[in-house]
Amino acid sequence: MDGARIRRQPNGQPPTTVRSISLLVENSPGVLAKIAGLIRRRGYNIHSLSVGVTDDRRISRMLVVLEGDEQAEQVVKNLNKILEVRRVHDLTGCDTVERELALIKVSVTPGTRQEVLHVAQIFRARVVDVGEHTVVVEVSGKPDKIDALQALLRRHGIREMVRTGRVALARGSQTT
């Protein structure tokens, strides 16, 4: 089950739940601003956000990931009140397929290049650029996989990194 994640907090603060909220919205200007504004007014930080058109060009799917508590359910209820929002589904705790994509530019030397390439191979990452002093790898998969690759490459010196927002769909015949 990928939908629910517990994030440990520093300094002994209680852990928070990472909530994944799937929305089907009208593909029109201003919808994203309304949704982000509602979440901001409720005091939640958007951990990740991905938006893309569905097979129907009039409809976009958003996946908003928040760190929240039980009160985040109020955000879900309020999202349903936005006219351009067609459907809201809290995927937290649901059995889902989740993926992210990351590009990671890593510093290499002649002595470390093979080790970086070997680590990328283990994670089934693709090398998409090779320079004299850097290698760029592309990796996709569950967020935990990307976190693990990032941790291993960090000791070589990550020069730049970009991650897409999380995308997710419920497993099986359930539609969200």
Tell me what the structure shows:
There is one protein chain. This protein is of the alpha+beta class and 176 residues long. The strands form two sheets. Strands 1, 2, 3, 4 and 5 form a five-stranded antiparallel sheet that branches. Strands 6, 7, 8, 9 and 10 form a five-stranded antiparallel sheet that branches. β3 and β4 form a beta hairpin. The two termini are 16 Å apart. The model has no long low-confidence stretch (mean pLDDT 90).
Distance from N terminus to C terminus (CA atoms, Å) equals 16 Å
Helix content: 10-25%
Q: What is the β-strand count? A: 10
Radius of gyration: 19 Å
* Structural class by sheet pairing and helices: alpha+beta
- How many helices? The count is 4
What form results from the Cα inertia axes? Answer: elongated
Uncertain runs are none
Please provide the ordered H/E string of secondary-structure elements.
Answer: EEHEEHEEHEEHEE
User: What would the average pLDDT be, to the nearest integer?
Assistant: 90
Biggest sheet, in brief? 5 strands, antiparallel
Strand content range: 35-45%
